[in-house]
Structures
1.
Amino acid sequence: MASGTLGLYAYINTQNLKKMRASDNSMEETKLKKPHFVFIHGAGGGSWCWYKIKCLMHNSGYTVTCIDLKGAGIDLSDPSKILSFDEYNKSLIDFLSTLPDHEQVVLVGHSAGGLSVTDASHKFPKKIALAVYVAATMLKHGFSTEQDVKDGVPDVSEFGDVYDFEYGLGPDQPPTSGIVKKELERKLIYNMSPLEDVTLASMLLRSAPFYAFQRAKFKEGTGSVEKVPRVYIKTKYDRVLKPEQQDKMIEKWPPSNVYVIESDHSPNFSNPFILCGILVNAYISMGHTCT
């Protein structure tokens, strides 16, 4: 065989080997890539609410982002001056808008954070691999009807005068923000949570922009929100968003899966290990590989 032909074969084999190695590397990267979890706090909370979950998931190799919405956490905005839901949820929307078009995240919302998840699912359906509602308000169109309000707003009337309100628009107008009274925090929100977490929350909780929440209404679009896979995590001993209310929202807008966790309203504090396991299992159950 001519030396020129041998040289050509050698070149072709070398190129094929390079392609095979590149393909193997690409497959390995795909196999090893773990999901990016983005966590959204509830009313009056902040990114600090997720410190246990972030630590556990980060140590297991997951990418974790915890966002402070406007007037929450380290965002110094006055909650009483936040008068629209778009303004309140801007930090999450800005974050998702900066993600590359090919990148997806697992979006996890707790309590009122469910409104933020739904808003984002309407606006960025292709960037959300999975939407997870943890003891959260899950209403397809937000508070568009009286029934939505009945189903999605926590009924804590049995505990009496629960909130300290602020009236940013004047004393003759509806309250613009509010916070659970200090003496009721543990009884109502953290009835199964460790004392150190209750103490932390008592130091860091802020007024929530109730006026903005009431204006969380999501318009019927092209139906793209239905393309976002959803799961719901029910909290069995919740005194804020009671299991019956959670059931009504699940029945009205059924998710792909429903998980039940033995916890109070804050499983991020009271049962973090099980919550992490559920989050990973929920992602895998949607057909994703998570190694």
Note: The beta strands are 36-40, 63-67, 105-110, 128-134, 163-166, 177-180, 230-235, 257-261.
2.
Amino acid sequence: CLPALRQKQARNRSVLLCCLTRMNAGVLPTLGLLVSASTHLAVTGQSMALLRPRLAALLALCACAMAAPAAAANVSITTCRSFCGNITVDYPFALHAGCGHAGFRDLLYCIDRTLMLHLPSGSYRVLDVDYAYRGLTLHDPAMSDCRAIDRSPGGRGNGFVVEPWRAPFLAPDPDNVFLLLGCRASSPLFQGFPDRHLPCRNVSGMGCGDYYGCPAWDDYGRRPSGAAYGSAVPPECCAVSWGAIRAVNVSRLQCEGYSSAYSLAPVRAEGAGGWAYGIRVAWALPEANRGFCGACRATGGVCGHDVESRGDLCLCGDWNSTSNCDSSADAAPSSAAAPGAAIAALLLALLASG
């Protein structure tokens, strides 16, 4: 019986070796330890009938390990560049996890072929993505313009508020003006300077003086008169840039509504009727990222990020790299390695038990 038992244990070790070579590469460093330990297993007087259940369990675990894909954490590069309606969604933006830059994750959503951008202040329809000049054009349906004034005591419209961690990547353009309407005297805008209205000023030639000429004020029933920022406390309209207040929260600023306009043309429009209404947002990437993404694309990869560490990744098809697709030495570790190591430990336990 003893020679037969030793022959069976040798067969078990062969099965273990076969299984481990089929499992994820993260398990292979433990191969030498497992095989070495299995060669020193004590030979007992157990019967062949007792060994068969353990061998069956061993084979089942091997089958599970071989069935689990080792590259499950990888992102298909064909999904990263996509479309929503007639708008192209490409780096640094994305609609799928792991694509794009981590600073723009969980930002864009495609709903019924309409591209939407979501921030703490609300959701906006994306009208345009300008990759050449790094700009987004957003529309807030509750925002006033030159044709209609939309106000309520509790505040109307989203305004614009971005998460602190996202602020380095996304902010309204310096040439974008926010026209805050019907703000109370107790608004944080005027605290400390109740009769001077220091934050209110024209932005890129656009301000409340021209906005008062819009036909929307006739329909509203009360057209402001006199200087835009005169002695009235508070003014009917206060024009501010994003850089002056860093957050346009309509209700927190105690305003009834707002409008937003931007200018891209070198020649300023004559009057508020010629302004482009909406929120023009500029986006930026860290300087270090530009070299990384350029090298990734030059080697046929797609720029993405690790969904857990938020670090840059170059997506190379069936594997990911932390540098570029020509450098397999920088392959990103797969999250499947940990489960594989756990399975290897179970295999060792089974062999050690009999």
Note: The longest strand covers residues 122-130.
3.
Amino acid sequence: MRPLTEEETRVMFEKIAKYVGENLQLLVDRPDGTYCFRLHNDRVYYVSEKILKLAANISGDKLVSLGTCFGKFTKTHKFRLHITALDYLAPYAKGFGVAAKSTQDCRKVDPMAIVVFHQADIGEYVRHEETLT
């Protein structure tokens, strides 16, 4: 288990930032303690520093996993998020899309109808209104 390199950190944070935006810092500096990302067997784990210090007594070849697996690096050094990261990303996630129909209409609509127009963050227009062109 080792810390991520500069390049690995950049690639991983770019991927996570697509989903949580500027809230990325809130993943590391949490009110219940400091959390960090560690790499073990090409997988990135999200773990509290308290547990990380306790795990230092276990040799790397005997350690199976530690904390929550956020994702893994592929052989081409791309980062893939795992479903286990969803519980940690969901509270900070960006908005999903613009609804094309009301909730009542969505219940009765046929399966091929358009329900969401634009899958993006609607609040982005409000937050960054002065920088939009």
Note: The radius of gyration is 19 Å.
